[in-house]
Design goal:
The chain is mainly α and about 400 residues long. About 75% of the residues lie in helices and about 0% in strands.
C-alpha cells in the first residue's frame, strides 16, 4: 500500500459545509435560549461538552491502557484515539465556559440559598465558586498536559523511530491512569453530582469513569470501522475488531455492574436524602428513559457481543457501538436534565442543536488530525506485531 493511500484525503466540501452549518446553528440556538431560559441553555451545553470531552478522555485512556499493557495489536489503530484526543483542548475550553453559567446550573452557588440551608452550609467549604473553578482548571490542565505529552512522543517517534519514545509513554501511562482515576472522579462529582447538592453517592465517580471508558472504546470502534470500510485501514482484520469488541463488551458489563450497585444500595437502604435522586428520574415522564438507559448501554451490547462471532463481525460491532454512543448521551442527559426539571417535556431543540453543534466541531477536529498524519505509525516498535495480529 502506497504512503499516499495511508492518509485521508480532504473532506468533501459538501460534508464540511454541513458540519459548519451545524456548528453555527448550535451556537445560534444556544445564544437565543441563553436569554430566554439560561438554565436550559447551560444544561444543554453541559451535556454536550461533557459527552465529547469524555470521548476524547476515553481515547487517551485507551492509549494509556495499551501502552502500559504493551498491547501490540493496538498499534494498527493507534492513530484513531490519538486523533480523537486532539479535541481535548476545545472540550476543555467549552467546559470552562460553563463557569459563566454557574449560577444557573448549581443551586449551591447562590449565597442566599446557602445561608438558609444547613446542608449547603456544611458543604460550603468545598462547594463554593472559587474552589470549584480552581479544581476545574487544575484537572483540565493535568489532562491537557498528559494528552500533549502522549501525542508529542508519538510524533517524535514518527520522525526517528526511537524506542525510547514508547518507553516514555509507558511511564506516562502508569502515572496518568492513577491520576486520572482520581481527577475524573472529582470532576464527575463536581460537574454532575453537585447539580443536586443534597444528594450523594460514594460510587458516583467510578460510575462516570465506567461510562467514559464505554463511550471511548465504542467511539474508537466506530471510527476504526468507518476508516476500514473506506480503505484507509486495510490491515485491520477480524482479530483487531474482536479486541475492540471485547473492550466495549467488558466496559458495558462494568458500567451495568456499577449502575445496579448504586441503584440497589440506595433502593435497599431507602434513605430519603438518597432516594430523591431516583424518585425524580422514575416519575414525571422520566421513567421510560431511565430504564431504556440500561437496555441500550448494557442489554444490547451484552446480547450481541457475548458470542465470539458477534465481536468479530464488522456490521454487528458498528451497530452496537453506535447504539452505545447514543446510550452514552442518554446516560449523561439523565444525570443533568432532571436536576433542573421535575417533568420531562422531551428532548428540546436546544439539546439537539447544541449537541449536534459540538459533535460537528468534534468531527472537524478529529478528521483534520487524521488527515495530517499517516494512519500507519511507522516508528512504533509494535507495528509488525499489530500488522500480523492473530487470535
Amino acid at each position: 500500500m502506497k504512503e499516499a493511500e495511508r492518509r485521508l484525503g480532504p473532506m468533501s466540501l459538501g460534508v464540511r459545509n454541513v458540519l459548519v452549518v451545524l456548528v453555527v446553528a448550535g451556537v445560534a440556538v444556544f445564544g437565543v435560549t441563553l436569554f430566554q431560559s439560561p438554565t436550559a441553555a447551560w444544561s444543554s451545553l453541559l451535556v454536550a461538552a461533557f459527552y465529547f470531552l469524555t470521548i476524547a478522555l476515553g481515547a487517551i485512556a485507551f492509549l494509556a491502557l495499551t501502552y502500559i499493557t504493551k498491547a501490540g495489536w493496538s498499534s494498527v489503530v493507534k492513530r484513531v484515539p490519538e486523533a480523537m484526543s486532539t479535541f481535548l483542548p476545545v472540550g476543555a475550553g467549552l467546559t470552562l465556559t460553563l463557569l459563566l453559567g454557574i449560577h444557573s446550573l448549581y443551586h449551591w452557588s447562590h449565597p442566599d440559598a446557602v445561608a438558609h440551608d444547613a446542608i449547603l452550609t456544611a458543604k460550603a467549604g468545598y462547594l463554593n465558586a472559587p474552589f470549584f473553578a480552581g479544581r476545574m482548571v487544575v484537572v483540565l490542565g493535568l489532562w491537557l498536559l498528559f494528552g500533549w505529552l502522549f501525542r508529542r512522543n508519538s510524533l517524535r517517534q514518527d520522525a526517528d523511530a526511537a524506542v525510547h519514545h514508547t518507553r516514555r509513554n509507558v511511564a506516562l501511562a502508569a502515572g496518568y491512569l492513577f491520576l486520572f482515576a482520581f481527577t475524573f472522579s472529582v470532576a464527575g462529582i463536581d460537574w454532575l453530582m453537585s447539580l443536586e447538592p443534597h444528594w450523594f453517592s460514594t460510587i458516583f465517580g467510578i460510575y462516570n469513569l465506567a461510562g467514559l471508558l464505554l463511550g471511548g472504546f465504542a467511539s474508537i470502534a466506530v471510527v476504526t470501522i468507518l476508516l476500514r470500510r473506506a480503505g484507509y485501514l486495510p490491515n485491520v482484520n477480524e482479530n483487531h475488531l474482536h479486541d475492540l469488541g471485547k473492550l466495549t463488551f467488558a466496559m458495558s458489563v462494568f458500567w451495568a455492574y456499577i449502575w445496579i450497585s448504586q441503584y440497589m444500595l440506595i433502593w435497599y437502604s431507602n434513605l430519603p436524602e438518597e432516594t430523591t435522586y431516583y424518585l425524580r428520574r422514575t416519575e414525571g415522564g422520566w421513567a421510560f428513559l431511565f430504564y431504556f438507559n440500561v437496555v441500550i448501554n448494557w442489554v444490547v451490547p451484552f446480547v450481541v457481543l457475548l458470542p465470539r462471532p458477534g465481536k468479530r463481525s464488522e456490521a454487528n460491532l458498528l451497530r452496537v457501538s453506535l447504539a452505545v454512543l447514543g446510550g452514552r448521551f442518554l446516560d449523561i442527559y439523565l444525570m443533568v436534565a432532571p436536576a433542573n426539571s421535575t417533568e420531562h417535556g422531551g428532548v428540546g431543540i436546544v439539546d439537539v442543536t447544541t449537541f449536534l453543534g459540538v459533535g460537528a466541531l468534534f468531527v472537524l477536529i478529529v478528521y483534520r488530525a487524521l488527515a495530517r498524519r499517516s494512519l500507519i505509525p511507522r516508528g512504533d516498535p509494535y507495528l509488525i506485531e499489530g500488522l500480523h495480529h492473530k487470535q
